[in-house]
Write a structure and sequence with these properties.
single chain; 511 residues; alpha/beta; Aminopeptidase; 2 domains; 8-stranded mixed sheet; 6-stranded mixed sheet; 21% strand; hydrolase; manganese; EC 3.4.11.10
């Protein structure tokens, strides 16, 4: 979809349809032309009203916040997407202090809102809307700064397209999307974007690296596991970040077999790795100044005669022993080895792991919200604040030492599951903490995206199915860090303060 900015007044722009926001039920702005129809349909400025004869669609939004703009343009375009129209025009809507980010949100909403996954449909619905034209004539009467608006549209397009690519990958079926396929996608990405490098560790190399936890999860599958390392080096060495993603391409639960209704949609258990892959894609295209790595643990948790078993004891890459109490607690085993490998080989300043890790997180926070866990509350808070511009929902979850006791094993260094049904997202995070070295304890975040990664109904800018959870949040977090550095402000990770210049080389940063 092409999104352009026009200096023409809205009335002078030729397009097939017009999209108009009604902000906070204000029915008296200059763009509203259909008061009689409002009375006829008893439309008060909430929801969506499409007037096909007038070629206008009205969308009620709460305010000019980024989330309202993003959701509003998605709702409006979806409402008219089935019509035989190719172009839509709209005025500019932005807060006076946030024109750049407002245009970013508009472009994100347009591209994300029109997404659909139709690969396996014999009759595919064509996406008719090819262009959105935004006039510099604005709702607030204040003209946007064109350079900032265009930059916002560019950034939003890159982030949204990366998110949609993640949706495609997560929606892909398990018979086709195997660990080998994930490795191919990673290698293809490095060929498409020369600034991204790719390294693949196959099962033989994983055995040499003694990744006993990751290998055990995949040992019953005919599709052998892979560890995938993507790296991107921006123009500055101010910050080295590693994103570690859980890439379970299908999760049966293993011998601790999932009930059939819980197994459905487990193709989405690769969402963390896919988010990491596409976050580094967007970071490279945005030319972010940081050094960013993505480490993906790609594996299939199958059942069979070679499956690992409850009561097994595994020796992880870190040499810590793990007593298996539940083979359906496999994601943390994959992450344990991937995290250990990343710390040992990359030596990052900041570690973020991202995974569809626990159903307990969904029970606690609902389908739409992800959890932020870790040992450093300031770092958790920083991620929460800076990622908020993405429109993704997060909640901070804090560890406590009483829960750590529940992971103790009589025969190994740790158990992979607690001996209680309560606090599952926290105990899973505490399991991962065992594999974080002391020097990284305060520089590590764990993101549990089990809720929003795959939802069987449309919500906000998201379709039914894969949402691409985590991609936008990670990229907006990186953008926020860059803004703080450019402004000469401290970021939470104190060991970096000596390394960070007051200005980063990324002159195109969005604030």
């Amino acid at each position: 979809m092409k999104i352009t900015l026009s200096e023409k007044k809205l009335s002078q722009i030729k397009a097939d349809y017009e999209l108009i926001f009604i902000v906070d039920k204000n029915l008296n702005n200059e763009f509203i032309k259909d008061q009689n129809e409002f009375s006829f349909y008893d439309y008060k400025g909430s929801g969506v009203l499409s007037l096909n004869e007038q070629k206008r669609v009205y969308v009620g939004i709460k305010d000019l916040s980024l989330s309202s703009l993003r959701d509003g343009v998605a709702s409006g375009l979806r409402a008219i997407s089935a019509f035989k129209i190719s172009s839509v025009k709209m005025a500019s809507y932005f807060r006076d202090d946030a024109d750049k980010m407002s245009f970013l949100a508009l472009s994100e909403g347009a591209i994300l809102g029109l997404y659909s996954y139709q690969k396996y449909k014999s009759e595919k619905k064509e996406q008719n809307i090819k262009e959105l034209i935004i006039s510099t004539q604005s709702y607030t009467k204040q003209k946007p700064k064109n350079k900032k608006a265009l930059l916002g549209l560019e950034y939003g397009t890159i982030i949204a397209q990366a998110t949609n690519t993640a949706r495609d990958m997560v929606n892909e079926t398990p018979q086709n999307y195997t660990p080998k396929r994930m490795a191919k996608d990673a290698m293809d990405l490095s060929e498409q974007i020369p600034s991204i490098k790719c390294e693949i560790l196959d099962e033989k190399e994983l055995q040499k690296q003694k990744m006993g936890a990751l290998l055990a999860v995949g040992q019953a599958s005919p599709n052998p596991p892979r560890l995938i390392h993507l790296s991107y080096k921006g123009a500055s060495n101010a910050l080295k970040i590693v994103i570690v993603g859980k890439g379970v391409t299908y999760d049966t639960g293993g011998l601790s077999l999932k009930p059939s209704d819980y197994m459905l949609t487990m193709k989405a258990d690769k969402s963390g790795a896919i988010a990491a892959l596409n976050a580094i894609r967007a970071a490279a295209l945005l030319k972010l100044p940081f050094e960013i790595h993505a480490v993906l643990g790609a594996v299939e948790n199958a059942i069979g005669s070679k499956a690992y078993k409850p009561d097994d004891v595994l020796i992880s890459h870190s040499k810590l022993s793990i007593e298996i109490k539940n083979t359906d607690a496999e994601g943390r085993l994959v992450l344990a080895d991937a995290l250990s490998w990343a710390q040992e080989n990359i030596k990052p300043d900041l570690i973020i792991d991202i995974a569809t890790l626990t159903g307990a997180c969904v029970v606690g926070l609902g389908e739409y919200t992800s959890g932020i866990l870790g040992n450093n509350y300031d770092l958790q808070s920083e991620f929460y604040k800076l990622s908020k511009a993405s429109g993704e929902f997060f909640s901070i979850l804090e560890f406590n030492e009483h829960l750590r006791e529940l992971l103790k094993s009589d025969i190994a260094d740790i158990s992979n599951a607690a001996n209680t049904r309560y606090g599952g997202s926290l105990t899973a995070g505490l399991f991962l903490d065992k594999f974080i070295k002391d020097e990284y304890k305060d520089r590590w975040l764990h993101l549990d995206i089990a809720g929003p990664a795959y939802v069987n109904k449309a919500w906000g800018v998201n379709p039914s199915g894969a949402s691409g959870a985590g991609v936008r949040a990670l990229v907006h977090y990186f953008l926020g860090l860059d803004n703080l550095i450019q402004d000469g402000k401290d970021i939470v990770i104190s060991p970096l303060k000596q390394k960070i210049a007051k200005k980063s080389p990324n002159k195109k940063a969005i604030k």
